[in-house]
Amino acid sequence: MKRDHWLRHIERLDPERDFEEIQSISVYHEFPWDTIQALGFALYRTYAVPSVGRLLAETAELTEHSQKRYDDTVLLLDAVGEHGFASQQGREAVRRMNQMHRRYDISNDDFRYVLATFVVVPKRWMDAYGWRPHSQHEVRALTNYYRALGKHMNIQDIPETYEEFERLLDDYEREHFAYDEGGVAVSDATLDLIASWYPGPLGKVMRAVSVCLMDDALLKAFGYRPPNRLLRSAARGALRLRGRAVRLLPPRRKAFFARQSPNVRGYKGGYRLAELGTFAPGTCPVPHAGTAVPAAVEEPEA
């Protein structure tokens, strides 16, 4: 297999019809580690919108149960990507997401913005740090994939093209990014979670690296002091260097799913999709519904 094996396969597919297959190849074969990081930062950006950050702080899920909330989000999104929208697992994961969101008064505009981060942030990440940028086929297919996810979540007025998603994201952030104590609390808890994944002083280093990857608008919204220019340059340069190193590796033959990441730590014995996420007070998860999924068994690529 040559390094461009999967890209050549993607180019033979139709991004309008085969977007789920293209998404699976791109995410689980070409960019598994990068996609996990990019989607993490996509969700992180949403905390700088006060209506989003404040709601997340009020639920206390991300501030008091950070690891579980991270795990549940990764596993639910991964189930759809791994198995497809029409599968039992995909339908169950979307149903669980809709059940959680239905408990709160979330505007359609906020839903559209969050969806836009899923479309735009990964492309920008690959452009900056990936071993190659997303191809136009991938961009169109991934846009169609998240359009389909948005429709399954009953989001209205979904943009049709990547360019429309990008314009929506930039305009929304320009208009809505602002300091809010709730958003800052969720941001701090997320950075603490990232630090907890690494031993000793390395955790503080990775927390600082995370701040170095933030743009000025995001730093301002959270009230964070801009990092040292040399430190920011070193952190971003290290990621670009990693991308060049990955470019020299052979193509990944076996898919790597986000559920296999060592940062997903709460379900070593496996999990059931119907039991993930949050539930209304006084209610219980369905204890026997759904399909049990094995725990992580593999480490990600370097």
Structure description:
The chain is mostly helical. The protein has one domain (21-293). It is 63% helix and 1% strand. It has helices at residues 5-11, 19-30, 32-46, 50-59, 61-64, 66-83, 88-102, 108-129, 136-152, 162-176, 181-196, 201-212, 216-222, 229-247; strands at 271-272, 292-293. Strands 1-2 form a two-stranded antiparallel sheet. Mean pLDDT is 92; it is low at 286-302.
Précis, in short:
Helix 3 (32-46) packs across helix 8 (108-129) and helix 6 (66-83) packs across helix 7 (88-102). The protein has 14 helices and two strands; from the N terminus they run H-H-H-H-H-H-H-H-H-H-H-H-H-H-E-E.
Tell the overall outline.
globular
The tally of domains stands at 1
Structural class: mainly alpha
Question: For the report, how would you describe the main beta sheet?
Answer: 2 strands, antiparallel
Low-confidence stretches: 286-302
Fraction of residues in helix: 55-70%
Distance between the termini: 19 Å
Number of helices: 14
Mean pLDDT: 92
Name the strands of the widest sheet in spatial order.
Answer: 1-2
Q: Sketch the topology as an H/E string, one letter per element.
A: HHHHHHHHHHHHHHEE
Radius of gyration: 19 Å
> What portion of residues belong to β-strands?
under 5%
Number of strands: 2
